[in-house]
Structure formats: C-alpha cells, structure tokens
Amino acid sequence: MARQAGSAAGEHGAYARGRLHARPGKVDERGPAGLHPLGLGRARDSYLYVPGGYRPEHPAPLVLMLHGAGGHAHHGLGVLRALADGHGLILLAPASAGTTWDVIAGHRYGPDVALIDRALDWTFEAYAVDPARLAIGGFSDGASYALSLGITNGDLFSHVLAFSPGFMAPASQSGTPAIFISHGTADAVLSIDACSRRIVPELRRAGYRVRYQEFIGGHTIPAEIARDAVEWFTTGDSDGEAADPGLIQPRSNPPW
Predict the structure, then answer these.
(1) 34-37 and 47-50: which strand pairing?
(2) Which of 10, 38, 231, 238 is geometrically suited to a Cys-Cys bond with 6, CB 3.0 to 4.6 A?
(3) 141 φ, ψ to 5°?
C-alpha cells in the first residue's frame, strides 16, 4: 500500500529536501484505462494516462513526465503519449503550481514536490506499477527538474529521461538511476555547451550510467529521440551495475 503524502503544512517542511514518500505496492483490482484528471486541488490539473492493455497481474512501467516552463500537464503527456499504448506505459503528468517548477522558480523545493507525491500516491493505490521500470522525465525546465528529483530520489526512480535539460540541483543523492539525456546541437534556448555537455560528464564522473544523444536541431524532442528513450527504458538496455556514485555539485541557478 502506498504511503499517504503529507499535508499542505508539510510542503515547506518535509518536502524542502525534495524527498518523495509514495511507493508502489500490490494492486489486485483493475483500474480503468484511458485519460484521467486527478483533481488534486489546484487550478491547473494533473493527468494520468493508462494504456488499454494494462492488467494488474502484469505491473506496468510508469513515466512521471514534467512539462517545460510555461507549459501544463497536457504538454508533459504529449511527449510520450503516442508511444504509451505500444509500450504499455502508464504516464503521469503533474502541473507545476507556477509557470515552472518550485526549485527553478524559487530555488527551493516545496509545493511541487508535495503535489507530485500526492499524484504518485493516488496512482500507486489504483494501478500496479513495476518498481524496476519507474522513471521521471521531462523537457527543458521539466528535464532539469527531473534530473534534480531523480537523483534526489534514486531509491524510487529506476530511470531518468531528460530531454534538453538546463541544469540539475539535487538536494541529495540516493540510489543510482540510469539516465537518458538528449539535446539539440542548435538549441538557442538552452545552449548544449552550457547545459548537457557539462551535465553528462559530471554525471559519468559521479558513477551514473548515462545514455546521451545529440541531434541536429533546436529546442525540441524529435520523434525518433522520444522513441529511442522509451525503448531504452522499457527493454532493459540500461541494465548493468553502476559504480558507487560520487558527489555531484548541484547548480542551484540556471546557466543563463
């Protein structure tokens, strides 16, 4: 049974360290497939998409997808929605309280971590999720936040999918999630030299397994990159032992 997330009063206390408490558990009843608004008490709703082939006796891979700055939950869903049914992916797409995620907007964790914890808790109560295939991902600011939360909660997330990240600011390091990063060589929003070409070597030096793909293009996610990321995540191509992670120096301010 998934553990209940904290109250609103805990958003600036327990969640200030960026730690998530929800965990997948045993689910016997089959929850409905399709798109579900979660109704978690915010004006900007969060959504869950469950593929038609879902069966509780076969725990499904799940990707928590985070939108970019100025986006909303539908943007997070849209990144991998076309691939969800074919790969049996459950997609969970929360919406940030502001125009971007808390640690990026205010340089501290809090309300968005609490919201993500509630969304995960709701999902884990209703659907069987494979803990060995549980990813956090995102695009742009969402990718930066995915790296930050994924490293902080590497004992929960087995994988991180970061499409065109700007930086990472983990509050701590836990576990050794496998990491996929992609970036366009002509990105005019988040320069590849200032961002991914700095992030990837630092992660590798710290002992993380990183699949890195550069592509000719700008601030976007080509369809073939999204497909490669999903296949990497779902096929177990990222398996293998990683070295004990060294210390990552978190960048609390974006490189612009």
Answers:
(1) antiparallel
(2) 10
(3) -60, -35
